[in-house]
């Protein structure tokens, strides 16, 4: 009997009669019920969150910022949540929300406190505190509901943070624009300051140069003042000498006048005694010439003194006008002396003429008498003018003393003036050096402010708003799906389709016999018996996969990226799982059925069908690697979602290996069961 014949006979046995046929049909539908109905029920739970009741409590009273802007963040958040309709939001009081979460009227409650807006505005007043959103949950209502609520609160928190951050960043950038404007004004002021400092430095330099020049000239002035002091002292001394020499001049001129009178009176006697008179006249003329010489020397000394005084005054730094005034005063003081000198010179000339004429006196006694009268008149005038000349010389002497004293005081004070100029020059030099530092500092301030202006951002309104939005919400998520499941149900499909094939294979052996008793009794080949026992279950497994695959693709809405490969992989999965369960039943009987259930549980927790398998506890990792369900889930994911197929060879290889192993164990079981034992005839446990 061939294996196919054994399989056909087993199928006839389990389908003989109406109820057995219905039972076989029900077994075919088991994977369909498990796979398609479960996937349908969990197809898109997130799309139906709008039916989940949630309480919203808005206690926020609003707040006003320092710039007068009123913020009601609580109402804005409530409006956004209510308009979004992601949950069945119901705005209620705090007590009603608390009670509703406790009695399962609301899955969770979201509370925005009274100071919510105030807290959001607190950073602008440098009294920062966080705005608190209170989430009230009750895991007795639904644990995943609390998890989803936490996700919603995180999204609300992110949205509020982005909005407040955007507004804060906008104010910050606007403040930058204001700072830039003020800094630009400061830079203009610094530029003007630098220009003023530069001009002030030029003035300070000119002041220093002028003081240096004045200081140098005062040195020359000191020398000139010393020379002027010495010269004026010499003049004063000379005038004193002249005064001493001319103090007797009035008496002498009077004597001359008396002599002239006598001469007039004795002219007659002179005529009588001409030789003696001529000699006397010659002597008198000689005396007159000596007086005239003295007067001329005195006037010449005055002229030299005038030149010396004028030159010393010029050297001392007096202006031409000042020198002229002094010389005019000296001229007025010496005018009587010049007048007297002129008269003396005239009289000397007359005396000379008299001396000459005395030789002719004998011939012109009458003329001599007249000349004597004239000489007497001239000497009278000379005698009258001599006191005035002497008085002028005295006044000139007194003035010269005053000039000498003034020059001495000036000579004494000029060094002090020079020292003061030196100190002033040093102070001006320090001022100039300080101005240089100030110029450098103001230039650096100007350059720094100008550089700072260029570094301070000054975006236009659209750029500022876009920048503020980016600062407030800097990170956006761009999804790049290499492969995408689409819905929550589609994401679970690989796991539940694999479980459905295992459960389908498990329930088949509630009706089917693992090994044909007739073939065992007839001594058929162990391999033929094993294959013959596996084939009817494999055929029904194919029917299960066909019905399930058609339902989940046509009715539920799963559309595999590789439909034929997915269908073929499900067929291989079903055959492999049936081979494993067949081997357990054939080798261990009732215990094998129990182990099949245990393997189902172990694969449920280790296959990684919901969470990544790496999240399971470490002791379960060997189960994921060793049991076939993890490879089924991996293969179906890549085939249904259209992922990379580099690992599909390993998945198929593992399933084929388990298929061969299952048939090998079934063959071994068939070999052992060709010998009947008391435990086989009367087993201790029957399932």
UniProtKB/TrEMBL annotation:
<dbReference type="InterPro" id="IPR017501">
    <property type="entry name" value="Phage_infect_YhgE_C"/>
</dbReference>
<feature type="transmembrane region" description="Helical">
    <location>
        <begin position="564"/>
        <end position="587"/>
    </location>
</feature>
<dbReference type="Pfam" id="PF12698">
    <property type="entry name" value="ABC2_membrane_3"/>
</dbReference>
<keyword id="KW-0812">Transmembrane</keyword>
<feature type="transmembrane region" description="Helical">
    <location>
        <begin position="21"/>
        <end position="41"/>
    </location>
</feature>
<feature type="domain" description="ABC-2 type transporter transmembrane">
    <location>
        <begin position="473"/>
        <end position="667"/>
    </location>
</feature>
<dbReference type="GO" id="GO:0016020">
    <property type="term" value="C:membrane"/>
</dbReference>
<protein>
    <submittedName>
        <fullName>YhgE/Pip domain-containing protein</fullName>
    </submittedName>
</protein>
<feature type="region of interest" description="Disordered">
    <location>
        <begin position="233"/>
        <end position="254"/>
    </location>
</feature>
<dbReference type="InterPro" id="IPR013525">
    <property type="entry name" value="ABC2_TM"/>
</dbReference>
<keyword id="KW-0472">Membrane</keyword>
<dbReference type="InterPro" id="IPR017500">
    <property type="entry name" value="Phage_infect_YhgE_N"/>
</dbReference>
<feature type="transmembrane region" description="Helical">
    <location>
        <begin position="652"/>
        <end position="671"/>
    </location>
</feature>
<dbReference type="GO" id="GO:0140359">
    <property type="term" value="F:ABC-type transporter activity"/>
</dbReference>
<feature type="region of interest" description="Disordered">
    <location>
        <begin position="447"/>
        <end position="467"/>
    </location>
</feature>
<dbReference type="InterPro" id="IPR023908">
    <property type="entry name" value="xxxLxxG_rpt"/>
</dbReference>
<feature type="transmembrane region" description="Helical">
    <location>
        <begin position="533"/>
        <end position="558"/>
    </location>
</feature>
<feature type="transmembrane region" description="Helical">
    <location>
        <begin position="594"/>
        <end position="613"/>
    </location>
</feature>
<dbReference type="InterPro" id="IPR051328">
    <property type="entry name" value="T7SS_ABC-Transporter"/>
</dbReference>
<feature type="transmembrane region" description="Helical">
    <location>
        <begin position="488"/>
        <end position="512"/>
    </location>
</feature>
<keyword id="KW-1133">Transmembrane helix</keyword>
């Amino acid at each position: 009997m061939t294996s196919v014949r054994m399989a056909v006979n087993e199928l006839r046995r389990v389908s003989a009669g109406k109820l057995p046929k219905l039972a076989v049909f029900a077994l075919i539908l088991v994977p369909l019920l498990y796979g398609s109905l479960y996937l349908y029920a969990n197809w898109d739970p997130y799309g139906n969150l709008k039916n989940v009741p949630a309480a919203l409590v808005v206690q926020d009273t609003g707040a006003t910022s320092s710039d007068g802007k009123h913020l009601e963040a609580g109402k804005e958040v409530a409006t956004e949540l209510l308009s979004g309709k992601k949950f069945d939001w119901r705005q209620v009081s705090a007590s009603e929300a608390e009670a509703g979460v406790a009695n399962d009227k609301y899955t969770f409650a979201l509370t925005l406190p009274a100071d919510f807006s105030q807290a959001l505005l607190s950073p602008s007043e440098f009294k920062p505190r966080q705005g608190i959103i209170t989430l009230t949950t009750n895991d007795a209502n639904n644990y995943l509901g609390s998890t989803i609520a936490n996700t919603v609160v995180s999204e609300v928190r992110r949205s509020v943070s982005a909005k407040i951050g955007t507004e804060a960043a906008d104010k910050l950038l606007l403040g930058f624009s204001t700072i830039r404007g003020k800094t630009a004004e400061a830079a203009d002021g610094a530029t003007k300051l630098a220009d003023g400092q530069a001009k002030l430095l030029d003035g300070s330099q000119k002041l220093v140069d002028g003081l240096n020049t004045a200081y140098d000239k005062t040195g020359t002035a000191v020398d000139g003042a010393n020379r002027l002091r010495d010269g004026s002292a010499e003049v004063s001394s000379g005038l004193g000498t002249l005064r001493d020499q001319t103090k007797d001049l009035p008496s002498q001129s009077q004597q001359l006048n008396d002599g002239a009178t006598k001469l007039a009176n004795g002219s007659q006697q002179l005529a009588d005694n001409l030789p003696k008179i001529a000699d006397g006249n010659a002597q008198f003329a000689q005396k007159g010439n000596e007086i005239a010489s003295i007067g001329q020397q005195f006037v010449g000394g005055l002229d030299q003194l005038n030149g010396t005084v004028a030159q010393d005054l010029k050297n001392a730094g007096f202006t031409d006008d000042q020198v002229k005034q002094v010389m005019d005063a000296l001229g007025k003081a010496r005018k009587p002396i010049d007048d007297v000198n002129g008269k003396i010179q005239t009289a000397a000339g007359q005396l000379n003429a008299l001396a000459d004429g005395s030789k002719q006196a004998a011939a012109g006694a009458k003329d001599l008498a007249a000349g004597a009268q004239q000489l007497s008149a001239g000497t009278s005038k000379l005698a009258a003018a001599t006191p005035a000349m002497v008085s002028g010389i005295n006044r000139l002497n007194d003035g010269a003393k005053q000039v000498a004293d003034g020059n001495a005081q000036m000579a004494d004070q000029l060094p002090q003036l020079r020292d003061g100029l030196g100190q002033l020059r040093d102070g001006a030099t320090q001022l100039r050096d300080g101005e240089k530092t100030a110029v450098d500092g103001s230039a650096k301030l100007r350059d720094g402010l100008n550089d700072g202006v260029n570094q301070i951002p000054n975006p236009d309104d659209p750029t500022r708003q876009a920048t503020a939005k980016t600062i407030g919400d800097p990170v956006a998520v761009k999804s790049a799906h290499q492969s995408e499941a689409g819905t929550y149900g589609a994401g679970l499909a690989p796991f539940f389709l694999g479980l459905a094939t295992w459960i389908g294979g498990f329930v088949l052996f509630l009706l089917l016999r693992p090994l044909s008793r007739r073939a065992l009794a007839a001594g058929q080949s162990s391999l033929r018996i094993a294959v013959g026992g596996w084939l009817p279950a494999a055929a029904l497994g194919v029917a299960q996969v066909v019905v399930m695959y058609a339902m989940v693709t046509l009715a539920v809405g799963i559309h595999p990226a590789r439909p034929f490969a997915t269908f073929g992989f499900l067929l291989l999965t079903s055959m492999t799982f049936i081979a494993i369960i067949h081997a357990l039943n054939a080798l261990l009987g009732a215990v094998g059925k129990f182990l099949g259930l245990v393997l189902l549980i172990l694969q449920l927790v280790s296959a990684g069908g919901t969470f990544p398998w790496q999240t399971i506890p470490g002791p379960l990792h060997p189960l994921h690697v060793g049991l076939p369900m993890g490879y089924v889930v991996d293969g179906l994911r890549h085939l249904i979602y259209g992922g990379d197929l580099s690992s599909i060879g390993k998945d198929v290889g593992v399933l084929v290996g388990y298929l061969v192993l299952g048939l090998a164990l079934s063959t071994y079981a068939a070999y052992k069961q060709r010998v009947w034992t008391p435990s086989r005839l009367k087993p201790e446990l029957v399932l």
